[in-house]
Amino acid sequence: xxxxxxxxxxxxxxxxxxxxxxxxxxxxxxxxxxxxxxxxxxxxxxxxxxxxxxxxxxxxxxxxxxxxxxxxxxxxxxxxxxxxxxxxxxxxxxxxxxxxxxxxxxxxxxxxxxxxxxxxxxxxxxxxxxxxxxxxxxxxxx
Length: 142
Fold this sequence. Notes:
Blueprint (H helix, E strand, L loop, with lengths): L9 H15 L3 E8 L4 E7 L5 H16 L1 H14 L10 E5 L3 E7 L6 E8 L4 H14 L3
Antiparallel strand pairs: 1-2, 1-5, 3-4, 4-5
Helix pairs in contact: 1-4, 2-3
């Protein structure tokens, strides 16, 4: 069965999404796109050089945040109690503040396995960050 990811131009769309996130997200220092079905970081742009092993771990960390064993168990319990049979996941956006940075992870609504990641300075206006990233992600329904 063919998926949207296999369609021609997908790579260009992913690169365009990363470039738009990097340009439009306020105080952005890095942006990327993770495919959780393959565990791969599909594309990224950053102002700093990072060790390759850190970038390799980003996809795994994103998968753990959205679909780690405990998260899936919680989703399954709520789906069962609410009588929901959808394959969609409950966690759509996750904001993580580290010591110096703010990290926003946003699942694409049309492709639940694709997550946009934006890293900004901690001084970012979080409301503007959400608004801009949501707008860009909506424009790039991969």
